[in-house]
Amino acid sequence: PVAYITPKTLEEWYQTHQEFTILDTRNQFEFDLGRFQGATSLGIKRFSEFKDAIVHLPKSLNEKPMVIYCTGGVRCEKAGILLKREGFN
């Protein structure tokens, strides 16, 4: 199962300089409009490209927590499942 963190926890991670990866599951247009500090974009035009894009992510990202986000939560739910299938924690 995918684990969840609260906005307060994410804020604490930023404030305490916790090491984590933050992955934006939205498309590049949305990413360019605004994003969380330090967020990584997959450069996708539509979410249907997400599955193919994540195979290029380095497995070294498993060395620290990965936070994913989107606009309304639906893409994150799907993204979490796809990332788990590719071996990401």
Q: What is the tally of beta strands?
A: 3
Structural class: alpha/beta
Termini distance? 10 Å
**Unreliable spans:** none
Tally of DSSP helical segments:
4
Percent helix: 25-40%
Oligomer: single chain
Mean pLDDT value: 93
Tell me about this structure.
The protein is an alpha/beta fold and 89 residues long. The protein has helices at 7-15, 28-33, 50-54, 74-85; strands at residues 21-24, 40-41, 66-69. The radius of gyration is 12 Å and the shape is globular.
Which tags fit this structure?
three-stranded parallel sheet, globular, alpha/beta, 89 residues, 4 helices, 3 strands
Task: Give the SSE map.
Layout: H1 7-15, E1 21-24, H2 28-33, E2 40-41, H3 50-54, E3 66-69, H4 74-85
Parallel strand pairs: 1-2, 1-3
In short:
The chain is 36% helix and 11% strand.
